[in-house]
């Protein structure tokens, strides 16, 4: 079972790791590639935005998994 808080913190440390923790490997790889690209490509201007979006989506996906687990019993 995934914890939304752990998923968010993992993605704050390394973008994409929270998604991988949730079991969404392709989504995690996407963030692992895109976020550094934005950090480097924009000189840090947009990298932090991708970093935060990665953490937020990891949190949301963990919440969705918890809700599905509650419904399915």
Offer a quick outline of the entry:
This protein has 73 residues and is an all-alpha fold.
Write up what this structure looks like.
The protein has 73 residues and is mainly alpha-helical. It has one domain. The chain is 81% helix and 0% strand. It contains four helices and no strands. It has helices spanning 4-13, 17-22, 25-41, 47-72. 34% of the residues are buried.
Total domain units = 1
User: Please, how many helices?
Assistant: 4
Shape: elongated
Low-confidence stretches: none
Q: What distance lies between the first and last C-alpha atoms, to the nearest angstrom?
A: 13 Å
Category from helices, strands and their pairing: mainly alpha
How much of the sequence lies in strands comes to under 5%
> Could you estimate the helical fraction of the residues in percent?
over 70%
Total beta strands: 0
Protein name: DUF5683 domain-containing protein
Keywords: Membrane, Transmembrane, Transmembrane helix
InterPro entries: DUF5683 (IPR043738)
Pfam families: DUF5683
Per-chain topology:
Elements: H1 4-13, H2 17-22, H3 25-41, H4 47-72
Domain DUF5683: 3-64
InterPro entries: DUF5683
Protein name: DUF5683 domain-containing protein
């Amino acid at each position: 079972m995934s914890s939304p808080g752990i998923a968010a913190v993992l993605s704050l440390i390394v973008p994409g790791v929270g998604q991988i923790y949730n079991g969404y490997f392709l989504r995690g790889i996407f963030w692992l590639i895109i976020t550094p690209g934005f950090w480097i490509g924009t000189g840090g201007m947009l990298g932090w935005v991708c970093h935060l979006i990665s953490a937020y989506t990891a949190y949301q996906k963990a919440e969705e998994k918890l809700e599905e687990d509650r419904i399915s019993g």
